[in-house]
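User:
Can I borrow your eye for a moment on a structure tokenisation matter? Would you put together a sequence-and-structure record for a protein of your own picking? Please set it down just below, with no commentary around it:
AI:
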Amino acid sequence: MSEPIKTGINNSLFQLIGKVLLPLIGWRVEGEPPPMKKCVLIVAPHTSNWDLPIGLICAHALGLLAHRRYGFMAKASAFRGPFDSLLKWLGGIPIQRNAAQDIVQQFVDIFNGSDELMLVITPEGTRKHRPYWKSGFYRIALKANVPIVMAYLDYKRHAAGVGPSFTPTGYIANDLEIIRKFYSSITAKFPQSVGKIDFNMDEMMR
């Protein structure tokens, strides 16, 4: 697959808009944009439709998306007609879900062919409660040999930001413990919908 295009919303104007809107929604940002050129950035917890607009405002205010090549996965069938340009402008990367080559390998190839890419993933995969996190983000980072950066939306403190990063080792239990420890103090919009930070090992073996 070719390198993702540069998106249309990663410029200084949107960073300024984010800073203007931030006090209006009553949130603040913490941390700094990750310095590395390639990474998988996970955003958690994800339990509400509000996560997206609040997350975008906070991300722009922090400068997380400014002058940076970033993207999120979307099924290739969605990139049709006028939606093709719009989704790419927003950072969408088309993925062939029914391709012989699995999704993880598709993103590994994208990382290998990119000089710069911050792949943004919500590892819960849905706003509803589910017993496990989806392991795709971890497998992508492990196979592409890129760091995992932990970002968050804390509704208790009305604070969003970027936390520490680590490079996955393949020792799943140890790596998950790093993630659990960091997110243990973060409060979701709907705490009852937060799932366990763990992987379905059957999924890991696919």
Summary: The beta strands are 28-30, 38-44, 70-75, 92-95, 117-121, 148-154, 159-166. The longest strand covers residues 159-166. The radius of gyration is 16 Å. The longest helix spans residues 12-25.
